[in-house]
């Protein structure tokens, strides 16, 4: 007999290595060691811990982990490590403060350290301390709020304390006048700390006029913390002003020049220079005048320039003015009057003018001219005036007579040409006189004008030239009545007349066919008398209306899905030899639905605009197309109840995709319909709900047609095929050796596999056994006594259990009929099934069970007691699988080995 070797697992010890980190840091990568690996196996040791970045300082277990290809061959013993989380050192951020000046107390500007975690700072020196001048060390001690996870730490920075500069207060002194000595009023600086002042210039000094700088040097008593300071201010020293003495001079007459008699001022201090305004030699105007003087002292550094003034009276001189005589014509404006003057002094100039009582309408004669004078210095004179004389003479009248426009031969003179006008009232006498008919060419017309007012105006004559041109004949020609395109011009339209004899020439000429529209007709009249008449022209218009053109399209047909045919038609009504090309349009396209569509004709040609078109549409009839169907079957040979997929492909000789439905027939009987999708229709028949009947099934189809495709009729373009449906079956095969070995009183097992051939079994599959039970008394047990019709494939087990016989049973007689019947009744349930689905199946099962009972009885009668003394035997066993009359068997052999003496009976 075979034995069993059990291979146990080896022991692998995995130890995690200790590790440490600071609070708040990430865990390190955990490692460790392993011992106990054999056979060259290698492993990778890692670890994990419950400690996170935020876990407090302390110790935590490191639980080791191990991975490797052959880890399942080991029993793993894990030894934890320790993770020590220590206090973190806070980060202090403290930038060295900017230098300060002595006297500045420490504040948060200098004591401004910050930390990476919450806590408190203690500073040395403390807040509010005033550090001495020099380089000072500032210390900050930081105590974190969380003393469990963070350590106390310190930081230092250097602070530079510069010496203080004393503050000197010294306001700029008020201005002083030249000659004032410096004293405490000006030299009065103060400082904010004790010390002493030294001034420059010193007390008692007299500064010069101008802006002077005063300086002071301050030496503090505490030179350790303060530096020496200086300050300056500016003082303004104003110049002194001299004193001028000057009395008003005596009166003078206009024209007298100024001199030292009037310009006699004196000054203190003396020795300077005087500048007078106006200057010596100036002639002042009449009236009271102001004289000014500017005194410039010799010492201009310390004295300013001084000024003074005096008043002088200037009396007027005498001026004589005489108006000049003048002459003008009656009715004109007065001329500009002039004159002369005498008695001027000092080079003065004047303008003399005048005025008179005579106006533009005053009659011819003499009138007084009263003079007047203007000038810049007239106020400096007393004026004496002498009158002049204005003489008004007669006026020559002005005749206006524009050159008359040319007149046509035969036109008599009238006021249109004899239309001269005078500048004053009067009468005209013309030559030639009115109503005269002049000859062709250039003629001179003369007009003599006698004014009504002979006192103030003289008699005058004028002449103009008048051109007499040849006459243009008058043509009588009205617009002709409208004509239709194609009508040639004739005397009906070309019918102009004139009162002047001559010859007519027409454009276009007679016989011309005009285009449609309002067309111009021109005529030229050449007169017989070309001396007195010119050639004349006239234009009229004639309306040319469109001719009628009938454009007709012929009817046409086409099959759905095909291109439109070539359309034809006719054109009638063309005139004047015109030719046209006919074209056609329609809304129908290759895939337009079955129906009728208009064929719209159109005509084109060079002269198409000369016609009105009558369009007669044709009709395009679109008829249905035919389809040819082809049937494809997923299979042509199939077991009963297995689905068959039927696919119909519709093909058309034209474009387009058929729609509608396809009907499927089995042996002429309708079994289903399916919509056409794309150009195919699919129907599945068979399966459990609607299986095709067994035998040969002739499948045929018919297409229903749609709006654009004809329906199929039986025998036309329909498609067909056949499917052979065979009965259902199943396979029954062994999955274990066909010989079982054992001894009395033991059990053996046998396995087999059953599977349907087709969609299901023919019926429920029932399993029975036909065993000879020759020397073997056995009990047969199936893992399941049947497989349902639709259960699918299954694996089953048959257990054969043999009986251990007692010694007394070794010579026992065969069991009687009652025992046989009882044993048969015991086995009967193994062959029973539930209620039969079909009567044919029930009959088959009754027959099978009756046979089983007979076999059982036969087997029992062959049994005898067994035990020690029985030889080794082989007992054939037939396993039977039955489904709706279809039966398959498997024969196995149970080999009983020779057994030892049996003492226990069961």
UniProtKB/TrEMBL annotation:
Record's keyword annotation contains Metal-binding: no
Keywords: Membrane, Transmembrane, Transmembrane helix
Pfam assignment, any one: Big_3_5
The keyword Methyltransferase appears for this protein: no
Gene3D superfamilies, A to Z: 3.30.160.710, Immunoglobulins
Chain ranges passing through the membrane: 811-831, 843-863
Protein name: Bacterial Ig-like domain-containing protein
Highest taxon of the lineage: Bacteria
Domain Bacterial Ig-like: 632-716
Residue stretches making up the MBG domain: 12-84, 319-391, 549-620
